[in-house]
Amino acid sequence: MKVQRHPLLSPDLGTQREVVSYHFGTPGTGKKIYIESSLHADELPGMLTAWQLRQHLTRLEQAGALRGEVVLVPVCNPIGLNQRLQQSFLGRFEMGSGENFNRNYADISGELIAAVEGKLTADADQNVALIRAEARRILEGKKPASELESLRLTLLTMLIDADVFLDLHCDWEAVMHVYTGTSVWPMVEPLARYLGSQASLISLECGGAPIDDASFQIWWKLRDHYGEAFPIPDGTACVTVELRGQSDIAYEHAQKDAQAILNYLTWLGVVDGEAPPMPALSYPATPLSGTVSLTAPVSGVIVHRVAVGSYVRAGDPVLDIVNPHSDEVTTLFAEVDGVVYQRHFIRFAHTGMDIARIAGAKALRTGKLLGA
């Protein structure tokens, strides 16, 4: 294992943060896998899972059982880790700018098209290698203007040439679920099966420029630009893994999830051995644009009527909002058939609050498909 330290741009006198990455295996001898956790710094299940992975990967490397390279970044957001207000941990938004740590990543596709002009060939593998090298060169040449920009550039530069990128997150309260690109779903489905994903949400683009969109979009935008002139496959299969809810932190979960990821790496040929049989997928992949939010029309106390992970049908009652002054009980009903895959952990609703989401099978929305 090699340890690399990536200093971020210092925001103030006497202040210096860094991102630490752990590198296993040998670059250039097989697939490159990049795994990071807790980009939203208050989402901690991934950090514990990454710690478990580091122990496993260390043993596998010592045994000579790794083929290719695995880059692991267990604590990928040191800025967010240091944000506290009156004992409350605020790791989702950067406090100086108000920006979400997982939004507004650079779209380098225009620069990349210019960089590869006249260099692409009829060989898909050569094109992938060229695009990765040029993308990395472009990112390495950028100069950040803030600590937040330097964090985004550091992470994107590390992952831009990966075959597979796993971004470990969690939700407020949730069952295991994943987000990924429509075209790479066949490569990602085994991971969803090993993880026991109860919702698999696929899209071409989420909107808002999260880190997975930034790394995935260069491939489909180049294909859109060149059409059939050159073979340009998806160079990176990007997966956001939502490891249940924020309070689902336990050794048992972390051990199970780390083993599921190792099973996937074995299936990919990065870890020696025979991958175990894949479990059945509990619910088919559905479009991210098919998710439906249950939004509070009134304020009051939230009482959930179904468990997270439940399959509901359109018209089923999902939750109540109770007004203790008027005795009014407002029931919110499912608008589509699907899985209630996530919900807010707060039990008091303000008007307009996004309380829960259902994964429906039919595309219904366009534009920005993620929440704030």
Name some characteristics of this structure.
single chain, five-stranded antiparallel β-sheet, 372 residues, alpha+beta, Aminopeptidase, 2 domains, OB fold (Dihydrolipoamide Acetyltransferase, E2P)
Write the layout of secondary structure elements.
Blueprint (H helix, E strand, L loop, with lengths): L1 E6 L10 E8 L6 E6 L7 H18 L6 E5 L4 H4 L2 E2 L2 E2 L19 H8 L7 H17 L6 H13 L4 E8 L1 E2 L2 E5 L3 H11 L3 E5 L7 H16 L10 E9 L5 H18 L17 E2 L3 E5 L4 E5 L6 E2 L4 E6 L6 E5 L4 E6 L4 E2 L4 E7 L12
Parallel strand pairs: 3-4, 3-7, 7-11, 9-10, 10-12
Antiparallel strand pairs: 1-2, 2-4, 5-6, 8-18, 9-11, 13-20, 14-16, 14-19, 15-18, 16-17, 18-20
Helix pairs in contact: 1-8, 3-4, 4-5, 6-8
Contiguous uncertain segments of 5+ residues:
none
Helicity range = 25-40%
Strand order of the largest sheet: 1-2-4-3-7-11-9-10-12
Q: How many distinct folded domains?
A: 2
What is the second-level CATH architecture of the largest domain? Answer: 3-Layer(aba) Sandwich
The biggest beta sheet reads:
9 strands, mixed
Q: What structural class should be given to the helix and strand makeup? A: alpha+beta
CATH level-4 homologous superfamily of the largest domain: Zn peptidases
Shape: globular
Tell me the β content: 25-35%
**Overall CATH class of the largest domain:** Alpha Beta
